Amino acid sequence: MNKPNPLQPGSPAPAFSTTDQDGKTHTNQTLLGTRYLLYFYPRDLTPGCTTEACALRDEHEQFTKLNTLVFGISPDGEKSHRKFIDKHSLPFSLLVDEDHAIAEAFGVWGEKKFMGRTFDGVHRMSFLIGTDGKIEKTYAKVKPAEHAQQVLTDLQG
């Protein structure tokens, strides 16, 4: 088992290509020239992940005003993402990382402990990626209810 080792500010975002809840392809190359928040979360429709997604949803207008796209990413598939979006009216795309290759590339895949069990999984971490494709800020200890506000404060600061 390995510990997560998230990429740090100044690092280029790793190359990735994946689909969202509608099967649309997103890559780090197509996102060049755009600032975006890529937030990794463990699982659709779970309490902490729902809290985080809904907080980002509630502040989505502010992210838009600050020219920042929001993308969630987890090991769930397109159908699960679509259900999550529909149930909670999420205004942003959720990206598929079923083989957790993107999570590994960003350094957010690693050992977790839950209810006495140890296993590998996605750690709740986020990356603010600048228009140049480089990481502007790494959020390693994300608190679901506070994360949206924390990112907005950084964007406005």
Give a written overview of the molecule:
The chain has 157 residues and is an alpha/beta fold. Helices cover 29% and strands 29% of the residues. The protein contains five helices and nine strands, in the order βββααβαβαββββα. A hairpin with a 2-residue loop joins β6 and β7. The radius of gyration is 14 Å and the shape is globular. The mean pLDDT is 94.
Topology:
Blueprint: E1 17-19, E2 25-27, E3 35-40, H1 47-58, H2 60-65, E4 68-74, H3 78-88, E5 93-96, H4 101-106, E6 109-114, E7 117-122, E8 125-129, E9 135-139, H5 147-156
Parallel strand pairs: 3-4, 4-5
Antiparallel strand pairs: 1-2, 3-8, 6-7, 8-9
Number of domains: 1
User: How many beta strands in the DSSP annotation?
Assistant: 9
The low-confidence parts are none
Separation of the first and last Cα atoms: 38 Å
Strand content: 25-35%
Mean pLDDT: 94
Question: What's the story with the biggest beta sheet?
Answer: 5 strands, mixed
The portion of residues assigned to helices is 25-40%
Strand order of the largest sheet: 5-4-3-8-9
CATH homologous superfamily designation:
Glutaredoxin
Tell me the number of helical segments per DSSP (H or I, 4 or more residues long). Answer: 5
Q: Name the shape in a single word.
A: globular
The name of the CATH architecture is 3-Layer(aba) Sandwich
Give me the CATH fold name.
Glutaredoxin
Keywords summarizing the entry:
single chain; about 160 residues; alpha/beta; Glutaredoxin; five-stranded mixed beta sheet; two-stranded antiparallel ribbon; about 30% strand
